[in-house]
Amino acid sequence: MPSSLFIFFVFVVRNLLVTTMAAGSYSALSEWRPAHATYYAPTEQVDTVGGACGYGDLLRSGYGMSTVGLSSALFDRGQICGACFEIRCVEDLRWCIPGTSIIVTATNFCAPNYGLPGDGGGHCNPPNKQFVMPIASFEKIAIWKAGNMPVQYRRIKCIKEGGLRFTIDGSGFFYSVLVGNVAGAGDVVAVKIRGSRTGWLPLGRNWGQNWHINADLKEQPLSFEVTTSDGITVTSYNVAPKDWNFGQTFVGKQFES
Predict the structure, then answer these.
(1) Which of 12, 156, 182, 189 has the fewest Cβ atoms nearer than 10 Å?
(2) φ, ψ for residue 76 (rounded to 5)?
(3) pLDDT tens for residues 39-72?
(4) What pLDDT score was predicted for residue 29?
C-alpha cells in the first residue's frame, strides 16, 4: 500500500473511532439509571449567584427554575455543567406522581457532608448519585413531604431558545468567557476564540462553564468555536463587534437540538 494511501486510511479509521466512541458514550447515558432526588427552597441569593457552574442569575440567563444541583458522583468537577437530564420518580407509590417526569439542566453542585452518613443526611456524599432541585420542580414528580426520593434519570439532548450566549469579563489581557444556553449535548468540553488579528486560540476551563485566556484581543471583532461532549463543534463568526466591552453578552450560532 502506498504511504500516502496508508496515511489517509489511518486518518479515516481514527476519525471513525473517535466519532463512534463519542456517540456510544453519549447514547449510553440515555439509558434510565437509579439515583435519589431531594429539593431546596429557592432564595433570591441562590438564584442570583447561579451556583457552581457560574451561569449567574438563572432567570435572566434563560435557565429558569428547571435546574438541578448534582452530587460529586455526577458533577464531574463541573464538566457536566449545562447537560440536561430527564428525572422520574419510582418505587414509592405513596409519594410519586404517576406518569410524570421533569427535564432539568445541570447548573450547580451539591457538596458532600462527611459529618453525616450517606444514608442519614449526607445525601450528596460519594458514591451517592443525588439530584437537588427547586421545590417547584420536585413537586412535579413527587409530593414534597417525601423528602429524599428514589428516582431514575437519563441524559437527554437540551432544547434551548435562541443562540449560544458568550459573556465576556476580565481586565487587561485576561479574558473570561461564560458559555451558556447550549443546546444539543449541553456540556461544553472545548472553546476557542479568534480576533481579527489572531488565529484560533484555545481557552482553558476556569470553573464550571467559565473559560479563560491571556491574550490581546481588544478592538477586534471576536469569533468563537465551541465543542460539546458528543464531539460536535459549532463556530460563531464575528459575534462580538470591534467595540465590545467587558461585561457584555453576545449571541452566536446554536447547536441542533
Answers:
(1) 12
(2) 55, 45
(3) 988 654 444 455 799 998 887 777 777 899 999 9
(4) 61
Instruction: State mean pLDDT over 189-204.
Output: 97
Q: Rounded distance, CA 190 to CA 204, Å?
A: 8
Q: Which 3 state secondary structure label does DSSP give 126?
A: coil
28/140: higher pLDDT: 140
Q: Is 27 helix (H, G, I), strand (E, B) or coil?
A: helix
Residue 173 has pLDDT above 70, yes or no: yes
- Listing from the earlier edge strand, what are the strands of the sheet with 188-194? 201-202, 188-194, 222-228, 233-240
- Pairwise CA distance, residues 90 & 98, whole Å: 9
Residue 74 φ then ψ, to 5° = -110, -25
Mean pLDDT score, 135-139? 91
- Residues in Cβ contact with 231 at an 8 Å cutoff, skipping those fewer than 6 apart: 18, 19, 22, 23
How far is Cα 155 from Cα 99, in angstroms, rounded to an integer?
18
* Cα–Cα dist 184/160, whole Å: 8
Alpha helices in 29-134 (DSSP H): 44-49, 72-75
Cα separations in angstroms, 214 against 82, 177, 193, 211, 222 = 25, 12, 11, 11, 15
CB 206, CB 175: distance < 8 Å:
no
- The three-class DSSP label of residue 135 is helix
C-beta contacts of 217-221 below 8 A and 24+ residues apart: 217/175, 217/193, 219/243, 220/195, 220/196, 221/195, 221/196
Nearest CA-CA partner of 73 in 132, 126, 152, 133: 126
Q: What is the dihedral of CA 185, 186, 192, 197, to 10 degrees?
A: 110
Q: Which three cell numbers stand for residue 4?
A: 500516502
